[in-house]
What does this fold into?
Amino acid sequence: MTQPSTPDHMGTPTPGRHEGRVAIITGASRGIGRSVARRLAAEGAAVVVAAKSVEPHATLPGTIVDCVEAIRADGGTASYFQLDVRDADNVEAMVAHAKAEHGRIDYLFNNAGAIFLGPIMTVPPKRFDLMYQVNVRAAHVTAHFTLPHMVEQQFGHVLNFSPPLHTDPSPGMAPYMVTKLGMTRIAMAVAEEHRGDNVAGNSIWPVTMIDTAAVRVNGMGDESQYRTPEIIADAVSELFSRPPGECSGRQLTDEDILREAGWKDEDFERYWVLGHAPEHVLSIVGEGSLMR
It folds into this structure.
């Protein structure tokens, strides 16, 4: 069955905010990655749109090709690279493409992800392997090949789409959370290992569910509980605008970043898919949340 989809959401760009910067966005053919790619490009960054989807999918709209076409139609600069984040040689080639095509690499957003929820007894090893490879291993591999360029130019942001660290048992989703929390560990290591290089490592995670194909396919709530990807695009743009040396080693939510930038409660209303907040927000971060 075809899954419902929402249009691109990239917020209101600030012209020139990321002028001269170059961003690599994984998982950028649709959803959050696509929104962030379009937002950064609209603000002056050259963007490498990296994902597997080149040809249209029967049930999942969006490809790296049409994402780049949309960016260029808006006057932005972008190139696409068909990427399987499980393939280290492919990742290395993608990073080389970014440097050759655009001259430098300033931002890496590890957004690509795989999810399969369930108790340990119900998650086949091959599903765990896929999540491990696409989530935590890919975050290591992309950083491994990107960091030397950032260190050489003494500037960079590495941002992983992963939750704040915790020690809760995560019943019903431990295999998935193991891989996502591993991504946060990698981001924190980047921060500490490169504090003297003006290279930041941070993680970002939404307070509640974002309207993406993965959320809909896994039946996580309903659209009354969803925010649009625009909130992540706004938060990532804001985070990347900060000097790396002044914002590193942090495990942030989208709301953390935006509230620090001056957002008030009423400013978050526009992000709800249905135009208003639900009576009870399903939190996916913090004590008592859905995804712990």
